Amino acid sequence: MTDRRYITTPIYYASGEPHIGHAYTTILADALARFDRQAGREVLFLTGTDEHGQKIQEEAARRGIEPIRLCDQMAERFRDAWDLLDIGYDRFIRTTEEEHVRIVQAFVQRLHDRGHVYAGEYSGWYSVSQERYFTEKEIGPDRVDPISGRPVEWVEEENWFFRMSDFQEDLIRHIEENPDWIVPEVRKNEILGFLQQPLADLSISRPKRRLRWGVELPFATEHVAYVWVDALINYFTASGAVSAGAAPDDPAWDDVSGSWWPADLHLIGKDILTTHAVYWPTLLMGAGLPLPRQLLAHGWWVVGETKMSKSLGNVIDPLQLRDEYGADALRWYLLREMSTGQDASFTPERFDIRYEELANVLGNLASRALGMTAKYRDGVVPSASGSGLDTEVAEAYAAIDDALESYRVHEALAAAMDLARAANGYVESREPWAQAKDPDRAEELDETLNTLARALVVLSAMFAPVCVQQMVELASRLGLEGVPTLADARRVEMSGRAIEKGDPLFPRIERA
Ligand code: ME8
Fold first, then answer.
1. Ligand 1 center from residue 227 Cα (angstroms)
2. On the CB side of 422, how many CA atoms lie within 13 Å of its CA?
3. What is the DSSP annotation of 181-224?
């Protein structure tokens, strides 16, 4: 494994407010980035907003403002939301940035110069909601797009095309030779199934008379780039592989080795799998660039049976949940509740159950261990040679390593919670309150309290990528400078350290 990792989220449409779905992908990326940083890797974590195209143009018109005003407002909203949810991205990209616009232009010019584009007529069924064409088969007799359920429109126009079909065989070979390139496997198979049909060429432009809000094609100035081409290139722009001023034949395009390109992981929802697993790699092949190392397509948050989405009007506001329960609790719920890759149903009841787990297992353990150390040993962790819970700690480490290897974040978190549960069980079996009553058992009590303090240090490191705020708090109550890395956590010397009891980390919340 490299000691650098470049992780991306989709760039979200600047036409709507951030919702739980966006928050999920971004929190997942953030937690993975935090686990990586904890393991000593240098990370570039990219997110941002997708600001061109018909969807944005129409939303701005609906609101009676200029598209750029809408984008400015929404980019700010996404940034604020990510701050409130403790998302530590390294770069927030906006596709209206000058740097990105110039790189898109150089990229498409490069495709042109390498002979991969041609002008032609296009006709087909277009979904503004998804900003893409769908086939007759995909839209079915009702003529709605299969993802949002919204009607599609018939479009006939002059377009520039990318010879995507030329790369079909290479793409199939790439997927077959790299079985983990698309995870989970069900998504890989979906793409391989899709690639059994001949691939059509990709329309990469829109005439300005229909759509003005986009990046002008340098070789056909009466057209703008198709928004998905513009959007996908964001990952390349932010890698710093070529500078904004670089010509399409600049040698930098042929040697990206010093840069962050290729990305290690594109995290996406399964709704945008085709664009990422077919359009994007073939565009990169056309431009002569290396492909991203991996795509992870996660499932959907659904309400009842349907996907949560702005166009369906059934979205949950993550910031409201954060105001009620705190960012840590929301992050915990989303990451613990969804098995990476599968759909999950959002319900307030499940949210409460997951919150109670934090409060009653982890929070309760901290209260008990810190409280008893305060009460029985004047707030100083006693020294002891005992090795209580060592087996459970080792098992939790191994389970977390194994789970993270294949992005089963929910399992890694379950293993951490299991350790907290085991530590509560240890308290029950040791009965420190009984040990405290009997002066002959002072050494036993020392061992109990020392073991619990060491377990809490390890737990603070295991939960820190998710419960960002309260694990910093816990580490500080344990007398530490900050949360240790996972590797260091099991070696922290606790004997003689002054701790602080404090209030519950996850207080009981009365539901209105
Ligand atoms: O598609 N459950 O942007 P978008 C889980 N701009 N995740 C969900 C979700 C749900 N119900 N709803 C949305 C776009 N998401 C393009 C992307 S990338 C070059 C361009 C998440 O605002 C999930 O990550 O519609 C999904 O892929 C993404 O938001 C779509 O966000």
1. 15
2. 19
3. SEESHHHHHHHHHHTTSPPPPEE-EEETTT--SSPEETTEEEEE
Residue 479 has pLDDT above 80, yes or no: yes
The mean pLDDT value of the chain amounts to: 95
| DSSP letters spanning 418-446 | HHHHHHHHHHHHH-HHHHHH-GGGHHHHH
DSSP per-residue codes, 220-242: EEEEEE-HHHHHHTHHHHTTTSS
Which of 125, 142, 148 has the alpha carbon at shortest distance from 271?
Answer: 148
Runs of H (alpha helix) within 117-206: 136-139, 168-177, 185-194
Residue nearest to atom 12 of ligand 1 (CA): 21
Determine whether the shortest distance from the Cβ of 167 to ligand 1 is under 6 A: no
Q: Ligand 1 pocket: which of 24, 71, 103, 317 to mutate (most atoms <8 Å of CB)?
A: 24
Calpha distance 288→190 (Å, rounded): 26
Q: What is the pLDDT of residues 200-243, one digit of tens each?
A: 999 999 999 989 999 999 999 999 999 999 999 999 999 999 99
Taking the C-alpha atoms of residue 350 and residue 332, their distance in angstroms, rounded to an integer, is: 12
Strands 4-13 and 42-50: parallel
Residue 213 and residue 196 in contact, taking contact as beta carbons nearer than 8 Å: no
Q: Model confidence over 362-405: pLDDT tens digits?
A: 999 999 999 999 999 999 999 997 678 999 999 999 999 999 99
Query: Could you tell me the domains of the chain?
Result: 4-319 (3.40.50.620), 347-489 (1.10.730.10)
Give the number of the atom of ligand 1 that is nearest the alpha carbon of residue 10.
18
Whether pLDDT at 1 is above 50? no
Q: Is the CB of 315 under 6 A from ligand 1?
A: no
Token reading at 233: 């290139």
Give the least confident one: 4-8, 149-153, 258-262.
149-153
307 lines ligand 1 (CB under 6 A): yes
pTM, two decimals, is 0.96
Q: Is the CB of 271 under 6 A from ligand 1?
A: yes
Residue 511: pLDDT band (50, 70, 90) is: low
Which tens digit of pLDDT belongs to each residue from 436-448?
A: 999 999 999 999 9
- Cα separations (Å) of 139 from 10, 143, 166, 310? 24, 5, 26, 20
